[in-house]
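Handout, page 2. Input:
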Amino acid sequence: MLTKEQQAVINSNSKEILINACAGSGKTTTLYNFAESRQDEKILYLAFNRSMKEEAEQRFKNLRNTEVRTIHSLAYRNVGYKYKDKLTFKYKAYQLAMDLGYDFNKSSDIALVSEVRRQFNEFLRSRAKSIDEFLSGRSIDPSYSPKEILELLNKIFELKKDLNNDIQITHNFYLKLFHLSNPDLSRYYDLILLDEAQDINEVIIDIFKKQNITKVAVGDSNQQIYAWNGAVDALNKLEGDDYLLTNSFRIGLNLANICNLILKDFGKANMTIKGKNKSQRIGEVDRKKQYAKLCRTRAMVFDNAVENILADNRIYFEGGVNSYNFDTFTQAWLFSEGKETNDPLLAPFDDYEQLLQYVENTEDLELEFLTKIVKKYGEKIPKYVRQIKKLAVNDKDKADIIISTLHRAKGLEYQQLVLETLSMQSFVNIIHRLK
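Output:
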């Protein structure tokens, strides 16, 4: 049974539709019915990431008129495939220093290169059509010459674009090339459904905005978690007819009231969430039954994994245990002991002290995280990593506990949930206000 809010979306004849949907409001069901009612149109469903794409493919598999893709897969199909031998998920400051001919052990050089890298990453996420346009009006640290920054940005862009060298590119680089090619998706589709619109960046917004076909953007302005990575709320950047999905079938009345209070405190009360799940409750988790624990950082994931292996609990990791790359912790500890390692993340450094100095100079969060793990667990790391892998299960139903970061759990549902990102006192303060 669809709600009146869902039916209003499905019946809309607007060419540009913006849907602000609270968590658990049945947005996928709404989009499915929207697409199902338009069987004569070729529809592109743009999912936020691979896991959500796979989930959407299952939901939409019976609709022959709907193709589910991520924006990066579209870009890869058009231009990214040319760079398959140059692709990397990470391109660090020391790599950029070497590619530009700078010494990453020299603090002044690495500071300049870090600024270039920061500006370059922001350019890739921007709607700017050139580096000159991007830098126009932007403030640059007075420690550096704007002319030098411009020259280095143009140099690295051309080096990465060149197919005849081995300088690596990230997935955002070929996405930018796709953007610069002014893609016309009307050649293939009549309608685009853009999911998780609150967590996309300017380059995706610009591609979406310029398509001259029917467009639907759906998201939740209160669930943005990728602002740190350049994401902006497309629902506030796009024009169209506005719709709300405010009925949450995932949470009950009490939790909805708490959520509404929190949103009001943060000045984000753009809708009133109505909790429709009468069986949902807030209280003590029964840890004799399976429950999920969501962590803010990978450090918290490792801490919780260690705690559970010591209790001999079977663990399911969202995204798979290997995706958390725990072997790197072992390699980092060995490196700190002066032993050789085979981890490419550590390969550029002559010794651990050089790594520590690099972290201090660049504030590289990934490597800083590694050094903190080494300091906290030391020689116990190899044993803990082995035990974590031994107790990790591939079948979620067989796990005693599910551990995940917030980002990997985006869009998923659990019967019992512990959130390790907000202190209990914060919840107590909020609950007192409900009395």
